[in-house]
Design goal:
Elements: E1 2-7, E2 10-12, E3 18-26, E4 33-39, E5 46-52, E6 57-59, E7 67-72, E8 77-82, E9 91-98, E10 102-104, E11 108-112
Parallel strand pairs: 2-11
Antiparallel strand pairs: 1-3, 3-8, 4-5, 4-9, 5-6, 7-8, 9-10, 9-11
């Protein structure tokens, strides 16, 4: 079993920055990829960014050049640095771990508004 806890969400003005954190615990040795997804009201959950155990990253086109995903395996942490935030980035952001099965965190709200 793997447990994921997100933090770092909040209210930020357009153009601002936030850093999300995902703390993982449990049987991490079978996890080969971690990722961030988001779900806006009335929309489906969508990929934001993923990072594999060897450090390879993948980003949604909508966040390329603005968001950076990183991981600290010694601390079992995954981060999402979000810069130049836009109103359309408003959503609940979820952390996901991929192994034999998928694990999800409870989500953290990010609101971009003036």
């Amino acid at each position: 079993q793997v447990q994921l806890v997100e933090s770092g969400g909040g209210l930020v003005q357009p153009g601002g920055s936030l850093r999300l954190s995902c703390a993982a615990s449990g049987s991490m040795f079978r996890i080969y990829a971690m990722g961030w997804y988001r779900q806006a009201p009335g929309k489906q959950r969508e990929l934001v960014a993923t990072i594999t155990s060897d450090g390879s990253t993948n980003y949604a086109d909508s966040v390329k050049g603005r968001f950076i995903i990183s991981r600290n395996d010694a601390k079992n942490m995954v981060y999402l640095q979000m810069n130049s935030l836009k109103s359309e980035d408003t959503a609940v952001y979820y952390c996901k771990a991929e192994g034999v099965r998928l694990y999800w965190g409870q989500g953290t709200q990010v609101t971009v508004s003036s």
